[in-house]
Design brief:
single chain, about 675 residues, alpha+beta, 4 domains, five-stranded antiparallel β-sheet, five-stranded mixed β-sheet
């Protein structure tokens, strides 16, 4: 008999034995009163309770006119119930009449050799408690379940019992902690970590929530934060664990097989016989001081006729990593180097990406040389791409270059000055062609091994960064034009003009609220198989080729260019490139979200000691109902603020940091 569909086979009468469905169990009782839609019963323990008639699961043929009769009869039924083997009964029935509905009397006779009320009650009680072997028939009898159904119910019951046991072990472990030694303890610790990372309702997280609620049924703290405290206290996660990396299954380490394959590549340097020897040029690499993958370097020569040749060396990763090689497959899976404040997750193994293929100073290295010849006014006279060998003389930081450009003595002071002059002329030309060049305040953010937060502001348009970025843009633009003129299949990055942008000041850095408005107006750049303008850069076509150590898409374009240089034929079709780029783009976008989440966490951590202090802020835009989006100027973080005064976009004000919690992404300003 199914408790979900109770049946009342006999008429209710005072003094009749009934089974009541109460508190998720079946309890025998004696009818002592009948009311409209309700029945009053007395349980074996003497308690009298009124129930709705629908709670009556079964009415027995046995009369129990007195409490004593009930107390005497129930133990007899329990004893008989203990003799009922439903599995054996099911086998008997399926052998005799598997498709026929059987009465309770028939089942009682088969199970206990008797069809009296006591045997019926015992069998009915068993059937109500275990629906594995029989289910209700259309005529009030019982049908044997199919073998498939029995197996499935057994499996579910085993799972339920296992879960109950594991939950008990989990709760025991939560009470005492220590190293997990039982299956339930191991399972709950793993499930708690899953809950912290994903905060979902899937199976591991569900088990963690069940265990927490069984352990602390009256605790009002959210499951997520109970779980967080436990996994930190037990050392599963660090207090500053990067959950975004775990959520996206990102790892710093490379598989052993990939490391072995990379070591084999590094042990067999590519041939240099067919490359142009440009090691005599005074090439310098300019990077952030934390950079370990050196993609690019610059050199300049000035001819007697005044023409300048600027050579942008880009690491020739394609010479080291053949297509479909294990290192290539891993690089394609990773797509890009992911930068988080705690340290990067490189696209290539360190021995290759940070050493053999990287443009390390003082080492002979292979590169693609993007050579642009210009006159003194920065008019381009010639452009060529050649496989080359380079020996970078030195690495400079952006701060080093800014000091040299400001007058500090250095062997490259003249060359850097000429490079900057040409860069500024090129930039002015792009601006005339509609380029939107924004001088932005950014923050270099790194977390040192001792968890010190290294935070350094800089401007994207300072002389050193302006110099380097302009030559990277030039290399990408001229390569795009090179592909266009030769009809080489390529992937171009294009950007349509923004709508309703308005006039953007070009003679000064934008205020944060102005920059916010501009960025919100811009259209997203997209990928195209045909050359198309990039309005933000102010160029007719653009393809990325300057970071093959860090971007797999750039590596693909290097292979394409090198194939055309060597054989006159591309290695990839337009369709193949577009399909590869589109798939990579999805992954790169996901990793960009990881980088932003990681960066926001550590900026909040930097702010945490300042709780209660006043912070300089600027109003960015209205959010509605008296609420505004403001930016904390020191760190560039945005937060919601409920205005207590008249403000407008651009208003600068000091707000008190009332609440902050980096782990909970909480930032409250008043």
């Amino acid at each position: 008999m199914s408790l979900a569909e109770p049946t009342v086979p006999l008429e209710l009468k005072v003094g009749q034995l009934v089974w009541i469905y109460s508190d998720a169990v079946l309890r025998p009782a004696r009818v002592v009163g009948l009311h409209t839609g309700k029945v009053e019963v007395e349980h074996a323990g003497g308690q009298r309770v009124s129930y709705a008639e629908r709670r009556v699961a079964r009415v027995s043929r046995q009369a129990v006119p007195t409490p004593a009769a009930l107390q005497a009869y129930v133990p007899q039924v329990e004893a008989a119930k203990g003799q009922v083997d439903l599995e054996t009964l099911w086998h008997l029935v399926t052998e005799v009449a598997p498709d026929r509905e059987h009465t309770l009397s028939e089942l009682a006779a088969l199970a206990l050799g008797d069809a009296g009320p006591l045997s019926e009650d015992a069998v009915a009680w068993c059937l109500a408690l275990d629906a594995t072997y029989f289910h209700p028939g259309a005529n009030g009898g019982h049908l044997p379940s199919s073998a498939t159904s029995v197996d499935e119910r057994k499996r579910r019951e085993e799972t339920r019992l296992l879960t109950e046991r594991e939950l008990g072990e989990a709760v025991d472990w939560l009470d005492r902690r220590g190293p997990p030694s039982t299956p339930g303890a191991i399972k709950v610790l793993e499930a708690l970590a899953e809950l912290v990372v994903f905060n979902d309702e899937e199976r591991p997280s569900r088990f963690a929530r069940q265990a927490l609620r069984k352990w602390r049924p009256h605790d009002t703290e959210a499951d997520l934060w109970m779980a967080w405290r436990i996994v930190v206290d037990t050392g599963v996660f660090d207090v500053d664990e990067n959950l975004a990396l775990r959520r996206n299954h990102l790892r710093r380490d490379f598989p052993a097989s990939v490391l072995e394959a990379s070591a084999a590549l590094c042990a067999m340097p590519p041939e240099t016989a067919q490359v142009l020897d440009l090691r005599a040029l005074h090439a310098v690499a300019v990077d952030d001081p934390f950079t370990s993958e050196v993609d690019d370097a610059l050199a300049i020569t000035v001819a007697e006729d005044g023409t300048r040749t600027v050579t942008v060396f880009i690491a020739d990763v394609a010479a080291w990593v053949p297509p479909s090689h294990p290192v290539d497959a891993e690089a394609r899976r990773r797509c890009t180097t992911v930068y988080v404040p705690e340290g990067k997750l490189p696209m290539l193994p360190p021995d290759l990406g940070q050493h053999a293929a990287s443009l390390e100073p003082g080492q002979d290295r292979l590169a693609l040389a993007f050579r642009t010849t210009l006159d003194a006014e920065a008019n381009v006279l010639d452009f060529a791409i050649v496989p080359a060998q380079v020996n970078v003389r030195e690495r400079l930081t952006y701060d080093d270059v800014n000091r040299i450009l400001a007058g500090e003595a250095h062997p490259m002071s003249t060359g850097l000055g000429v490079l900057l002059d040409l860069s500024d002329r090129l930039r002015a030309g792009r601006r005339r062609d509609g380029a939107l060049i924004l001088d932005r305040r950014e923050l270099s953010l790194h977390v040192l091994p001792d968890k010190t937060i290294d935070l350094r502001p800089y401007r994207t348009d300072d002389p050193a960064r302006r110099l380097v970025s302009e030559w990277m843009v030039m290399s990408c633009v001229k390569t795009a034009e090179w592909c266009r003129s030769r009809k080489v299949p390529a992937v171009y990055r294009a950007q349509d003009p923004p709508e309703n942008l308005g006039k953007v000041p070009q003679d000064r850095p934008l205020e944060p609220h102005e920059l916010n408005q501009v960025l919100r107006s811009l259209r997203k750049a997209d990928l195209r198989a045909e050359p198309a303008p990039h309005c933000g850069l102010g160029v007719s076509c653009y393809t990325q080729v300057t970071s093959p150590l860090r971007r797999y898409q750039d590596l693909l374009m290097h292979r394409q260019v090198k194939a055309v240089l060597a054989t006159g034929k591309p290695v990839y079709s337009s369709q193949e490139l577009m399909q590869a780029f589109a798939a990579i783009e999805e992954t790169v976008a996901k990793y960009g979200a990881v980088e932003r989440e990681s960066r926001r966490y550590w900026l909040l951590r930097w702010l945490e000691p300042k709780k209660g202090q006043k912070l300089p802020c600027i109003v960015l835009r209205e959010s509605g109902r008296g609420r505004w989006i403001v930016e904390v100027l020191d760190v560039g973080l945005q937060a919601m603020w409920t205005a207590d005064r008249a403000v407008e976009a651009g208003t600068r004000l000091e707000l008190t940091l009332k609440g902050i919690d980096a782990r909970k992404d909480k930032l409250v300003l008043v």
